[in-house]
Amino acid sequence: MTEEMSTERKIAYQKARNEFFKMARELNASDGVEIAGVFYSDYDKKTLIYPNYAAAIKTFEKFRKLAVQEQPLVTQEEEVTKQLIIKKMEELQKLKGRELTIKVYEMKKGRFFC
Questions:
Q1: Cis status, amide bond into 72, omega within 30 of 0
Q2: Residues 6+ positions from 34 with CB-CB distance below 8 Å
Q3: Dihedral sign, CA of 97, 100, 104, 105?
Q4: Cβ contacts of residue 43 below 8 Å, gap of 6+?
Q5: Which of 2, 3, 37, 60 could bond 50 through an S-S bridge, CB–CB 3.0 to 4.6 Å?
Q6: What is the pTM of this model?
Q7: CA-CA distance, 110 to 114, in Å (whole number)?
Q8: What is the pLDDT of residues 6-34, one digit of tens each?
């Protein structure tokens, strides 16, 4: 990669990073959205943490706890979906069995159409 391309990429990265910070501040101020971010790049001399280390850790911990609390709900939803699929498959098998029984009955009566 040429030095010119590297410089352009660095400038683009810095603009995008700054835009993120601006949007994060606006969302937090206007809507009370809690945002945390970690920026690690060869373009920065050190890792950047938004809004600061303590707040980011607090936000990540909340998210981790939330994810753990929601896991049983996801598992329960999956189980309900599985049970519904099994039930519908059984119903389908019964319908297929009935159709077969009806066709055999009709064949015995001399009706040979499908």
A1: no
A2: 28, 59, 62
A3: positive
A4: 9, 10, 13, 14
A5: 37
A6: 0.50
A7: 12
A8: 889 999 999 999 999 999 999 889 888 89
